[in-house]
Structure formats: C-alpha cells, structure tokens
Design brief:
Order of helices and strands: EEEEEEEEEEEEEEEEEEEEEEEEEEE
Shape: elongated
Distance between the termini: 70 Å
Strand content: over 45%
Number of domains: 3
Radius of gyration: 30 Å
Number of strands: 27
Largest sheet: 5 strands, parallel
Oligomer: single chain
Number of helices: 0
Structural class: mainly beta
Helix content: under 10%
C-alpha cells in the first residue's frame, strides 16, 4: 500500500487501517508510506493511518512527506520493517501527529496469523488456521491444556512457506467433554524465536445440546423405526451394533430441531436377538437397546 496522493482533489476525512504493504514504494522509488501535499489542490487533511504493516526491501525512507499542506493527519501504531541504514522519516511533519510507530530492521516480514478457530462435533475438535508471510517461520505446534493443567504439544506441522495465504487443519479426536479444553498455536521461527496465538477454549457442555430417542415398536419387526427429538438442527451418527459388538449399520443422519422419524429398512434380514442403537452428536452419546 503506497499511500501516494497526487490527485487534483484534496484528500480529506479518510482512514487507512489494518493493511499490509510489501514493496509498494519501489514502484516510484518512494518510501513505504509516501504522502504528497504540495499545494492546496494536493492537500491531506483529517486523515488517520493506523495499525498497518509496511515492509520495503530497499533503503528508501520508511515515511516520506512531499510538500507541507498537511492538517490533522494522524499516523499511529504502524509497524515498519526496514533495511539497515534506512531513514525513518523524510520531509516536513507540520500538521502531522506521529504516535507509537515502530521501526524494525528485518529482512523478512514476520508471519501474520490471519485466523485460528476450533469447532467440535462427534468426531472431535477440528482446529483450523491460516497465515501469510511464513518465510521466516519453521513450524507450528498445537498445544492443548485440559482442566487448566500445563500445556502439552499434540501436533507439529512444518510451514507451507506461502507468501500470500496458507491454510492448515487438524482433528483432535481425543477431545473429551468431561473436561474444559484450551488450545493455542506455538509458532517457531527459523532463528528460534517463539510466539503464541490467542487461546481457544472449548466448552465442556453445549447448553443447546440434547437428544431423546425412542424405538417404536420394540421388539421390532422388519424395520427399525426411531423417534429422535433434538433441541437443535444437527448431524448425528447412528450405529446399530449386535449384543456381541458387531457393527451392523453406520450412518450419519441430519435431524432438525423438534421431532424426527428415522427408519432403517436395512435391518429386515437381521436374525433374532438383542441389538443396540448408539447415537453420537457433538460430545453426547445415547444408547438404547432393542430386540428383533
């Protein structure tokens, strides 16, 4: 993002927030952030430039002001990754407030973690994250804490090293609803520096959860008819297992909030005996016995 304003209209009342600029200033041999205000028709007023990241691989100035027609311009909380010997600011700063900007000498833009999320279902907890600018990063680790105990590493993943967008996912199949669980990313750079992501907490229970089952009639005849009452729309995993542990049927069924009827015709040829219907949804499991 080369902030280079040279239009025939004044630049007034604008905001430039939460952007990433990589070598944009090289296009015109300007700084990574260049502001033009050479006369009244090229003025910059009442403008905020905040929380941006700038990276430039040349020694041109980090911030360059051209002209003096600035008024109430705030440049705050930005990070500039510059080369050794780079001039931080060039030009007149009259009418400009420079607040808490950071200038770092670095050859590589550090990793930017774009997202880190967790979602639980009956298979476990699905962890997903995305990042950019991974050139200086070596690998990720997922750390897990159960019931506020110390964190332990459960997964390690080398970086894709994509300079635009890289996406990752991992399934924690060992998740247990009996305990509160917390996850975080540990990011290890090539130089050994370690940074952490935010912490994600997975609740021990879902207040909206709850399923009720009934098999009618029981004993069953040629088919199994199941009444499912659910508090929310969801996918449930249904299995029919013999009393000896043999899985007869294994399906994922979508049910809606309220009463649902599920019929399995595949059981018409089952021999007489005792069977179990096992239903899993998120962290909940329900078992019900029936006779054929």
């Amino acid at each position: 993002m080369l902030a280079e304003y040279g239009s025939t209209n004044p630049f007034i009342g604008n905001k430039i927030i939460n952007n990433i600029s990589t070598n944009d200033g090289l296009k015109n041999n300007s700084g990574s952030l260049t502001l033009w205000a050479v006369d009244y028709m090229h003025s910059i007023k009442n403008t905020i430039i905040e929380n941006n990241i700038f990276f430039i691989s040349s020694t041109t100035p980090a911030i360059k002001f051209v002209g003096v027609n600035f008024s109430n311009v705030i440049i705050a909380n930005n990070t500039f990754y510059v080369q050794p010997g780079t001039q931080q600011i060039q030009g007149s700063t009259g009418g400009v407030q420079l607040i808490n900007n950071v200038f770092l000498t670095s050859g590589v833009l550090p990793v930017k973690l774009l997202s880190f999320n967790a979602q639980k279902d009956f298979t476990g907890v699905k962890l997903q994250w995305s990042a950019s600018y991974e050139e200086d990063l070596s690998y990720y680790e997922i750390e897990k804490s159960i019931s506020n105990n110390p964190y332990t590493t459960i997964y390690k993943k080398a970086v894709i090293a994509n300079d635009t967008l890289a996406e990752y996912n991992y399934l924690d199949a060992s998740y247990s609803a009996a305990h509160s669980t917390h996850y975080r990313l540990r990011m290890i750079a090539k130089n050994g520096k370690i940074t952490f992501s935010k912490t994600i907490s997975v609740e021990t229970g879902d207040k909206s959860a709850g399923i009720k089952l009934a098999i009618m009639p029981n004993p069953v005849q040629d088919k199994v008819s199941i009444n499912v009452t659910s508090s929310i729309n969801r996918d449930v995993k249904m299995r029919i297992v013999s009393n000896g542990g043999t899985v007869i049927l294994d399906k994922i069924i979508s049910v809606k909030s309220g009463n649902n009827k599920v019929i399995f015709n595949e059981t018409s040829n089952l021999p007489k005996g005792i069977y179990w219907l096992i239903v899993n949804s998120n962290d909940e499991q329900k078992n019900i016995q029936f006779i054929k």
